[in-house]
Amino acid sequence: MASSWIGHWRSSAGVLTICLFVTLLTCTFRCSDCANPSNIILILTDDQDIEMGGMTPMKKTKALIGDSGVTFSNAFTASPLCCPSRSSILSGKYPHNNLVRNNSISGNCSSVSWQKEAEPSAFPVYLSKMRYQTFYGGKYLNQYGSKEAGGVAHVPPGWDQWYALVGNSKYYNYTLSVNGKEEKHADSYEKDYLTDLVLNRSLHFLEERSPRYPFFMMLCPPSPHSPWTAAPQYQKSFIDVKAPRDGSFNKPGKDKHWLLRQPVNPMPNSSIEYLDNAYRSRWQTLLSVDDMVEVLVKKLDSMKELENTYIFYTSDHGYHTGQFSLPIDKRQLYEFDIRIPLLVRGPGIKPKQTLQSPVMNIDLPVTILDIAGVNLSTVNMDGQSFLPQMAPSLRNGTERPFFLVEYNGEGYTSEDPSCPKLGPGLAHCFPDCVCEDAFNNTYACVRTLKDGNLQYCEFADNESFVEVYNLTADPHQLENIVKKVDPALLQTMNQRLIKLQSCVGDSCRNIK
């Protein structure tokens, strides 16, 4: 009887042991999945447009990221200027919440205040807490590394490896902060060309990282920002290319804000020759970025990490070359300055998709944190994840019905020598008395694609100037229809704008 009982016990114990083993094995597989989150790479170019053909040179990028994943046809910046836009990407907040107004220290660009209040809650900090290994290379914020911003010793929290450019975009003769220490560079292509240097340092990071934990890399080459210095092998590329002459090129800015009414029209030949050279040079610099993407993808493939890595490709804002007779710059409310390229590949994203869902650069950090497994309810950001749009099998989500674009104009208190007749308050003036910015070039726009393809903008100036465009009927924004549109629609758009200008966090995503 006892032996029978013992035999039964052993048999039951054996079954129990097998069950426990199967359970533990299943759990182990599940845990290994959880312990192996996706890697993420964000490539952020400087001043790359989408409306004026800025992605034309990027054949490898379009094949390796866009064709292998998704291309967003309606991606926008929260502000068409470098520092406010990049600050929005880092913070996930509209400029009225991250308080970065322009590219100056007084405009809160990389200021001590920004470092104390915004950087501790920027998205890399969350990734670091999730045990991501993090790398930054290239341009950070325009005033980074200046004495007023703490010099090169300041390394923002969340970054394990830090190779940040001091100041604005350059290709040669620049200074880097390498993990808080100054590193000066000269003009040797092999040693110093910044786009290639960012790539090479990132490859070294990939080789040295621990395979136990995921990685995040943010690569910020200077291209295609001025001074438009192409790599030697590309300096004769696109030799016959000129800026496109269609749309609003060399058109007068009638019925627009006064800054758009002041350029000489038609433009003098000297201005057209200048902008053509700039357009061609911008494309030339982008060829090195295209090479960067190719080398990175091949490296990830050789490491068996490509299929577990999300790669984002985008720009901080758009650009213009001759639109409404403005020679070259950004800062304006029109599509050519506020639209940005956005291509993404990664796990769960089907190839060769083109999505029309409206997305913004304030959505980038939220989407990255969503991929990393961060609980988004704990994140104080204005953006929303677009992972549901590009990978519906992974997430459920909703599209935003409309969104905000805002800009604070810059100007000088004294008269610009190029434009004495226009008086003080202007900036970025060219010969022929054409200025690209002014103090009262301060505006806020509500843009909607779902309920009519419309843009409504208000200026903070003495005129309280308003511009309204129907982008379906007038894709190049040639006619301001504020005096023709139904007053009820104007009131609706005005109310939306008021709400957006004061929104914070969740209220930025759920305005009706």
UniProtKB/TrEMBL annotation:
Keywords recorded for this protein, A-Z:
Calcium, Hydrolase, Lysosome, Metal-binding, Signal
Query: GO molecular-function annotation terms?
Result: glycosaminoglycan binding; metal ion binding; N-acetylglucosamine-6-sulfatase activity
Catalysed reactions listed for this entry: Hydrolysis of the 6-sulfate groups of the N-acetyl-D-glucosamine 6-sulfate units of heparan sulfate and keratan sulfate
**Posttranslational modification, per the record?**
The conversion to 3-oxoalanine (also known as C-formylglycine, FGly), of a serine or cysteine residue in prokaryotes and of a cysteine residue in eukaryotes, is critical for catalytic activity.
Q: Does the keyword Calcium apply?
A: yes
InterPro entries given for it? Answer: Alkaline_phosphatase_core_sf, GlcNAc_6-SO4ase, Sulfatase_N
Compartment(s) where it occurs, according to its Swiss-Prot or TrEMBL record: Lysosome
The name of this protein is N-acetylglucosamine-6-sulfatase
Instruction: Supply the source organism for this entry.
Output: Triplophysa rosa (Cave loach)
Where is the organism placed in the taxonomic lineage, from the top?
Eukaryota, Metazoa, Chordata, Craniata, Vertebrata
